[in-house]
Design goal:
386 residues, alpha/beta, 7-stranded mixed β-sheet, 5-stranded mixed β-sheet, 12 strands, globular, binds pyridoxal-5'-phosphate
Length: 386
């Protein structure tokens, strides 16, 4: 079966109740038939039995299994949030004395982990510019263990050639981790290009309706085994309820991403050249600096576009305040279109210099294009720009 079908047809084994829609296993722990079975479950980590929902849960497993099938991954593990997925990946594979190379254009909280927390524990980092992949190799040292990118990045929409980076990582024997949150597996599968692990904030397009938080990491079986032990012991596990919501959402991910992307491309094209804007950025606009890479590794441009208002900070505020129904919130990947101002919200903890370095200018507006009629969205934006 194709991934589109597997995302719909993968389900926990039907119970004796003969339910059609997937059941929710809202339970913290599981029972045993005998004291011997209970002892065996604890004695052997490799036994496929449920013990406690911090370790495993059928609703969570169903969600993870679907993401593995969609990402062409061997195995996976779910976390409470996207940041728990990022942090658990770093903590599982990095030790004091290690070094990580990361794109500088990463989500604000990932930037905080890299710059504020990892150094505190003796782990060094180096940043590279997504627009200069030729500088990556020069940053790799003897103690480099991991390379990390987001593509497209949040909010700059920088795109990197996944195969090129994967080849560098293979050559130097370092782990390659990709945050695939903006694209989703419906649009891009980094494992096919050589990534070792792919992670997501499932809070975004995977949920798609702004209801629950979640994260997931998928990839090579032996790496996921190590992450499982870290997560089982330290506790950033996904709640079964959130997994149930997310698993149902994955059934519609492909159709939703197609519509998010066709709406976003339509709006990007209409906005390009508007006199109030300095530029419009969207992966599948020919003016995007990495348009050719986007075309070769993404099946569509995704649901996020950005533009810069000529009138910068005050203009940004005025634009947001002029919106009538479009949501002003910092989430993304919702069925409802969202406008946000990264410089004063998600990326406000970066210094002005750090923001400039990753293209987060004061006038930058990030639009998470929803599933409404594209003409309604464009009319709302044009009205606010006027
Ligand atoms: C690219 C990216 N990665 C990770 C995260 C963190 O996810 P969460 O908010 O689910 O912790 C976000 C959140 O916006 C994100 O945009």
């Amino acid at each position: 079966m194709r991934p589109e079908t597997l995302a719909i047809r993968t389900q926990t084994e039907r119970t004796g109740e003969k339910e059609h829609s997937t059941p929710l296993f809202l339970t913290s722990s599981f029972v045993y038939d005998s004291a011997e079975d209970m002892a065996a479950a604890f004695a052997d980590d490799s036994l496929d039995v449920n013990i406690y929902s911090r370790f495993s849960n059928p609703s969570v497993d169903e969600f993870v299994k679907k993401v593995c099938l969609m990402e062409a991954a061997e195995d996976g593990i779910a976390t409470a949030t996207g940041m728990a997925a990022v942090f658990s990946s770093f903590m599982t594979f990095l030790s004091a004395g290690d070094h990580i190379v990361s794109a500088s254009a990463v989500f604000g909280s990932t930037h905080a982990i890299l710059t504020k927390y990892l150094p505190k524990w003796g782990i060094e980092f180096s940043y590279f510019d997504m627009n200069k992949p030729e500088t990556i190799e020069g940053l790799i040292k003897k103690n480099t263990k991991l390379l990390y990118v987001e593509t497209p990045s949040n909010p700059g929409l920088d795109i990197i050639d996944l195969k090129r980076v994967a080849d560098i990582c293979k050559k130097h024997n370092i782990l390659f981790i990709v945050d695939n949150c903006f694209a989703t597996p419906a649009v891009q599968q980094p494992i096919k290009y050589g990534a070792d692990l792919v992670l997501h904030s499932a809070t975004k397009f995977m949920d798609g309706q702004g209801r629950v938080l979640g994260g997931v990491v998928v990839g090579k079986k032996e790496l996921i085994k190590q992450m499982y032990l870290f997560i089982r012991n330290t506790g950033p596990s996904m709640s079964p309820f959130n997994a149930w919501v997310l698993s149902k959402s994955l059934e519609t991910l492909y159709v939703r991403m197609d519509k998010h992307a066709s709406n976003a491309l339509h709006i990007a094209k209409k906005l390009e050249g508007h006199p109030a804007l300095s530029w419009v950025k969207y992966p599948l606009l020919e003016s995007h600096p990495q348009y050719n890479i986007a075309k070769s590794q993404m099946s569509n441009g995704g649901g996020i576009l950005t533009f810069e208002l000529k009138a910068v900070l005050d203009g940004g505020r005025k634009f947001l305040n002029n919106l009538t129904w479009l949501s002003m919130t910092n989430n993304l990947g919702d069925s409802r279109t969202i406008a946000s101002h990264p410089a004063s919200t998600t990326h406000s903890k970066l210094t002005e210099e750090e923001r400039q370095a990753v293209g987060i200018t004061p006038g930058l507006i990030r639009l998470s294009v929803g599933l409404e009629h594209p003409d309604d969205i464009i009319e709302e934006i044009l009205g606010a720009l006027k």
